[in-house]
Write a structure and sequence with these properties.
2 domains; 41% helix; single chain; alpha/beta; 452 residues; Rossmann fold; 19 helices; 4-stranded parallel sheet
Length: 452
């Protein structure tokens, strides 16, 4: 077994294709439905908001999808990303476990999100699109699409969830540095935003609301398409570059994971690391796969697996997913990127088929884990990524208590350099473990569309 700390692949080992789990699932993912007819949607239904190349990737059942050379050229700015053996954390914990993390914070935007923003911008540019609209929670996706738009000469308009817009001004500054426009959501720029503000002028916003605003803008302008940073199949597909690299790097380390962990909000960074390992499990491997979410927005652990809208304004198709209800408003938290009412349909299906585990943590225990990790490994995790750190530490301590040696691999999906106000609040004792309102959750679930 290697004694190295970092495992670095050369650029010529950068994967040439994304992996599509749809090709190997024993039971197909239920199709998206048209909200008016209840019938499966076709490409024409998605054409107003997505380019055809992206629509084709959304529905493909091919196992491998080629990464275009211009996209691979951009990827080389930061990919392949490092695999790191967390030796100092292992020592601090006194655990016999071997802990590795795939570090996605080395991208220009500081997270895994450019893995999909770059191909989405590329495909839109190919089809003559001039503008992109999108939503963002904590700002990781918005800054990533802004970065990609700047590379391909596209205007980008970002609707940022208002509570994060106020909490994270430097994310806004990063988007503007890349040339994007950033708007607090709900806004007065769209019908969807105005309707929310009429009901609640002090609304702190949600990803569901911001999605409604961004989709409305895309659908109403011929020169504009919508770009999504998580949830849909094509986004999960693009992120699998993470797991494909990790497999090669684990071979370099002379090791293989027994446990694979990632945080889950919409599901993309989890899919990116986990789907290639789930493929191997379907062939007979026995890797535990764990998705970790916030207890304040517990989609996988408390949600219902049902058809629902992906947005609050009900402008999107119906998809079958673990959902808290499209009108559910999660309490504010610093892990804004995990504050979404639904889970990716593919991740939801994987959970429903028993191919993964899910657990939820409160934010203060996640920040405690993040601080412990930072003091051992030197990297300050993003609040979202701290959920995966917490689970990895818990698993390492379990193995210590049981006297077992296993290998843990987790996705450190981004750094927290733009999230230091969250750490300031944590050290000041101002972070609260907000719990969701059960009556509000019940009311949102009661509004689920009646299908069948």
């Amino acid at each position: 077994m290697s004694e190295s700390t970092k495992y670095l692949l050369p650029e010529d080992r950068l994967p040439k294709a994304w992996y599509n789990l749809n090709a190997d699932l024993p039971v197909p993912v239920p199709p998206p439905l048209h909200p008016g007819t209840g019938q499966p949607i076709g490409p024409d239904d998605l054409a107003p908001i997505f380019p055809m190349a992206v629509i084709a990737q959304e529905v493909t059942t091919e196992r491998w999808v080629e990464i275009p050379e211009p996209v691979r050229d951009v990827y080389k700015l930061w990919r392949p990303s490092p695999l790191v053996r967390a030796r100092r954390l292992e020592k601090a914990l006194g655990t016999p476990a071997r802990i590795y993390f795939k570090y996605e914070g080395v991208s220009p935007a500081g997270s895994h999100k450019p893995n999909t923003s770059v191909p989405q911008a590329f495909y839109n540019k190919q089809e003559g699109v001039k503008r992109l609209s999108t939503e963002t929670g904590a700002g990781q996706w918005g800054s990533s699409l802004a970065f990609a738009g700047s590379l391909f000469g596209l205007e980008v308009e970002v609707f940022m969830v208002k509570i994060s817009y106020n909490q994270k001004p430097y994310r806004r500054a990063l988007m503007e540095t890349y040339g994007a426009t950033c708007v607090a959501s709900p806004s007065t720029l769209t019908n969807a935003g105005r309707a929310i503000l009429e009901k609640d002028p002090e609304s702190s916003g949600s990803l569901g609301i911001a999605i409604s605003e961004a989709v409305e803008v895309a659908a109403s302008r011929d020169d504009t398409k919508y770009a999504l940073g998580s949830v849909l199949n094509h986004v999960c597909l693009h992120q699998t570059v993470i797991g494909e690299e990790a497999m090669m790097q684990m071979e370099m380390a002379g090791d293989q994971p027994d446990i694979v962990i990632a945080c889950t909000g919409g599901g993309s960074n989890f899919a990116g690391l986990a789907f290639p390992y789930i493929r191997e499990n379907l062939k007979g491997a026995k890797v535990r796969v764990i998705g970790v979410e916030p207890a304040s927005c517990p989609t996988l652990t408390k949600g219902v697996y049902a058809y629902d809208f992906g947005d609050t304004g009900h402008l999107t198709p119906l998809v079958k997913m673990h959902t808290l209800g499209s009108t559910f408003m999660p309490p504010g938290s610093h892990a804004g990127g995990l504050r979404y009412h639904g889970m990716a349909p593919m991740v939801s299906h994987v959970k429903d088929q028993g191919l993964m585990e899910a657990r939820a943590y409160h934010q203060t225990e996640c920040f405690a884990a993040a601080v412990q990790f930072a003091r051992a490994e030197g990297i300050v995790p993003a609040p979202e990524s701290s959920h995966a750190v917490k689970a990895a530490i818990d698993e390492a301590l379990r193995l210590k208590a049981e006297g077992k040696t296993e290998t843990i691999l987790f996705n450190l999906s981004g750094h927290g350099h733009f999230d230091m106000q969250a750490y300031t609040d944590y050290f000041a004792g101002n972070l609260k473990d907000n719990t969701y309102d059960q009556s509000a959750l019940d009311a949102a679930l009661a509004e689920l569309p009646k299908i069948g």
